[in-house]
Amino acid sequence: xxxxxxxxxxxxxxxxxxxxxxxxxxxxxxxxxxxxxxxxxxxxxxxxxxxxxxxxxxxxxxxxxxxxxxxxxxxxxxxxxxxxxxxxxxxxxxxxxxxxxxxxxxxxxxxxxxxxxxxxxxxxxxxxxxxxxxxxxxxxxxxxxxxxxxxxxxxxxxxxxxxxxxxxxxxxxxxxxxxxxxxxxxxxxxxxxxxxxxxxxxxxxxxxxxxxxxxxxxxxxxxxxxxxxxxxxxxxxxxxxxxxxxxxxxxxxxxxxxxxxxxxxxxxxxxxxxxxxxxxxxxxxxxxxxxxxxxxxxxxxxxxxxxxxxxxxxx
Length: 315
Prior knowledge:
Layout: E1 2-5, E2 15-19, H1 27-43, E3 46-53, H2 56-64, H3 75-85, E4 89-94, H4 97-100, H5 104-115, E5 118-124, H6 137-147, E6 150-154, E7 158-159, E8 162-163, H7 166-174, H8 178-185, E9 190-194, H9 201-205, E10 210-213, E11 222-229, E12 239-247, E13 259-264, E14 275-285, H10 293-313
Parallel strand pairs: 1-4, 2-3, 2-5, 3-4, 5-6
Antiparallel strand pairs: 7-8, 9-14, 10-13, 11-12, 11-14, 12-13
Helix pairs in contact: 7-8
């Protein structure tokens, strides 16, 4: 899959495209990608997705000084899921003040026609584009007719509870309902990232951790039973059991942004630089501030014991 950025680069030939945040790449998104790929293959076009970084709601939240919605998937994870779905192209538009100010007509001309060379486009009927979200599906239909590309409306993808959406995935994760999140995503929820050096507090307490920085707020917070892939150098696909914390480490040296700290039961060596995929299985408790390191060490020992009990009873 070819990944491109920006708006000034020339296109790479005509393509069939879809547009969205694709946060989580849930079953609704997967249906869109599948439709684009099917049409692209039939028409002899490249299949592509246009997405944004940061996400539009994150951009506007920052302008207001307000917290943005939690991010389900990092950009790298999203691109990996695009590639696994079979897309030929992914274009990442930087959503900044300049991009947000594009008039609907300029978005069609500069982005869809010139940059992406759109021959066929799939969006939902609730799709909005351009400054102030002034462009709607009806306006896009007229623009498509004028510009010579085909436009198709994507029907909603629903289950018994209604439309499948990123909001529903976030809500399921926030209440630690991992079974519901898995049904909406079509796969178990996981967070991936590269292990970085930390303060070595876990080693001091007797529970060494692999630390992964979370550049965006995750929909999870607290202590969890997990399994991680990528820690075993001889068998990177092997899932190893562990316990993890997502939080700001309030007891010692509180952090300005959340950190994922993973303690794996079968790993003793340092994992710096490794790329881990961490799958969340059950929530154990909230993150807490303890009076001293002895209390913190006892709490972690209890977390580890509970996690081991979980694996003993769940095979």
